[in-house]
């Protein structure tokens, strides 16, 4: 396992059931299963061909269950505590989260690792005086509708979350002039 996946693994809470969404080669899912013996670990792939290849790579005796389906949909009703979505572009990750918002809302945690603009994010973290070489985002929405946010464990205004999202997610397509963080 490479350093990128090893670092991502360190950030993931060791809670079961857990899913590696868009698992690819399945190494992260296998390592999660190794670190949590007896835990339920899912690896998902959107299409039948990649899912079949993932099953072949993992082997018949694998502790990882391969699920087939788009985004977070295969996790629906499985009681997952958390999910890892990594190795994709920000646009793809955004699409996954938007499409299956009901499933995402049921998860206790989601560890996301977009594959772009890290240098810009790192500079932004320094300007905000937020410690660390990673960005851990936490947002709570109370029953009264009020929102609280934290970046790397420090309370921040929601506006800083918008700035971070602008650095992490790029839109490419017909409406790329629109921002994800501004109301329509």
Summarize the entry for a quick read:
With 184 residues, this protein is α/β, with parallel strands linked by helices. It contains seven helices and eight strands; from the N terminus they run H-E-H-E-H-E-E-H-H-E-H-E-E-E-H.
List the helices and strands and how they pair.
Elements: H1 3-11, E1 18-21, H2 27-35, E2 41-45, H3 48-58, E3 64-68, E4 82-88, H4 90-99, H5 101-106, E5 109-114, H6 118-127, E6 137-141, E7 147-151, E8 154-156, H7 158-168
Parallel strand pairs: 1-2, 1-4, 2-3, 4-5
Antiparallel strand pairs: 6-7, 7-8
Structural notes for this entry:
- The protein has helices at 3-11, 27-35, 48-58, 90-99, 101-106, 118-127, 158-168, and strands at residues 18-21, 41-45, 64-68, 82-88, 109-114, 137-141, 147-151, 154-156.
- The chain is of the alpha/beta class.
- Strand 6 and strand 7 form a beta hairpin.
- Mean pLDDT is 79; it is low at 170-184.
β-strand percent reads: 15-25%
Integer-rounded radius of gyration: 17 Å
Between the first and last Cα atoms, what is the distance in angstroms?
A: 42 Å
The helix-strand sequence is HEHEHEEHHEHEEEH
Q: What structural category do the secondary elements indicate?
A: alpha/beta
State the total count of DSSP E strands.
8
Rounded mean pLDDT is 79
Helix content: 25-40%
Shape: globular
How are strands sequenced across the largest beta sheet? 3-2-1-4-5
The largest sheet, given as strand count, sense and whether it forms a barrel, is: 5 strands, parallel
Unreliable stretches: 170-184
Number of helices: 7
């Amino acid at each position: 396992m490479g350093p990128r996946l090893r670092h991502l693994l360190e950030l993931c809470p060791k809670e079961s059931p857990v899913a590696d969404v868009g698992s690819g080669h399945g190494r992260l899912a296998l390592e999660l299963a190794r670190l949590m013996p007896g835990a339920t670990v899912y690896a998902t792939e959107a299409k039948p061909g990649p899912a079949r290849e993932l099953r072949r790579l993992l082997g018949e005796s694998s502790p990882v269950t391969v699920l087939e389906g788009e985004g977070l949909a295969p996790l629906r009703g499985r009681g997952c505590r958390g999910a890892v979505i990594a190795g994709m572009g920000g646009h793809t990750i955004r699409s996954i989260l938007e499409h299956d918002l009901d499933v995402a809302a049921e998860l206790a945690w989601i560890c996301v690792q977009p594959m772009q603009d890290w240098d810009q994010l790192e500079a932004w973290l320094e300007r905000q005086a937020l410690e660390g070489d990673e960005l851990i985002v936490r947002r709570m929405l109370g029953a009264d509708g009020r929102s609280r946010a934290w970046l790397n464990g420090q309370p921040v205004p929601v506006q800083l979350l918008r700035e971070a999202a602008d650095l992490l997610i790029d839109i490419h397509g017909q409406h790329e002039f629109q921002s994800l963080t501004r109301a329509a």
